[in-house]
């Protein structure tokens, strides 16, 4: 009697890289996310945003957003699968940088000498938070 032992060459999917630190991209720019995985072919990929499915399984390992919007910020991950199983990638955090419009208003305050003058800055919608510089009579005020 002869016994033939066939060792399967099938390899479960695995990721070649994992997401790193959060990434920030400018609103309106193109964003391309990649899911670098290996394992026995065919490999299929599915993309998720904030745990909501963006795509069904396809052979496409890239996900492209042509014009990034504020709602596109959040957590992305891909799922890779083959006939041996499926694997969920660690989340990749994406921030969308933008500057909302704001009104430039003149403010006049009258205070007694030695008293504090409090000027109120209107809220500015932006990501990351804006750096604000105050000017008095055209000259930059150095924060104290």
TrEMBL record:
Q: Which UniProt keywords apply?
A: Disulfide bond, Signal
Sorted alphabetically, the Gene Ontology cellular component annotations on this record are:
plasma membrane
Q: Which SMART domains match?
A: IG, IGc2
> Which domain of life does the UniProt lineage start with?
Eukaryota
Keyword Lipoprotein among record annotations:
no
Report whether Disulfide bond shows up as a keyword of the record. Answer: yes
The protein here is known as SDK1 protein
């Amino acid at each position: 009697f002869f016994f033939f032992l066939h060792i399967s060459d099938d390899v479960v999917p695995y990721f070649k890289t994992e997401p790193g630190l959060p990434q920030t991209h400018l609103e309106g720019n193109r964003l391309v996310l990649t899911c670098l995985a290996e394992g026995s072919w065919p490999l299929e990929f599915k993309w998720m945003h904030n745990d909501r499915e963006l795509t069904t399984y396809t052979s496409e390992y890239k996900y492209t957003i042509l014009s990034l919007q504020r709602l596109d910020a959040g957590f992305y991950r891909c799922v890779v699968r083959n006939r041996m199983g499926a694997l969920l990638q660690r989340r990749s955090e994406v921030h969308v940088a933008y500057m909302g419009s704001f009104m430039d208003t003149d403010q006049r305050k009258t205070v007694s000498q030695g008293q504090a003058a409090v000027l109120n800055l209107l809220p500015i919608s932006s990501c990351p938070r804006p750096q604000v510089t105050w000017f008095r009579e055209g000259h930059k005020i150095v924060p104290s």
